[in-house]
Each structure stands twice: as structure tokens, then as C-alpha cells.
Amino acid sequence: xxxxxxxxxxxxxxxxxxxxxxxxxxxxxxxxxxxxxxxxxxxxxxxxxxxxxxxxxxxxxxxxxx
Length: 66
Hints:
- Pfam families: HTH_3 (PF01381).
- Residues 5-59 form the HTH cro/C1-type domain.
- The protein is mostly helical and 66 residues long.
- The chain is built from 5 helices and 2 strands; from the N terminus they run βαααααβ.
- 15% of the residues are buried.
């Protein structure tokens, strides 16, 4: 799953640790989300959407199937 988390985070001047603190997750979780190694749970996706004032679909995009 593709996402815009790094773009949104850096636009606010936040480090991965800063975003992790806002979400109450580890910095490693933020890194895994940003690199696409981890897909967020639905509650975490909603938390991210609220934090950045965006819809979930504006942050996360499904990869096209081949």
C-alpha cells in the first residue's frame, strides 16, 4: 500500500519520533508505515487521518493489481 505519510510528516517539520508520540506508537512502527512494510490497523488509519486533517483515501492508496 502506498502512502503519503513521510510527505505529511515532513511538511509539519516532525521527525518519525514526533509522529510516533502523536500516535502513541513506536518510531519503528512509523518507519514501517512510511516504507510500506506495515499496513495500519483501521483505528490507526483513522487516527492518522484526523491528525493530518485528511481522509484515509487521501493518505493511503491501494497499489494497482497486476
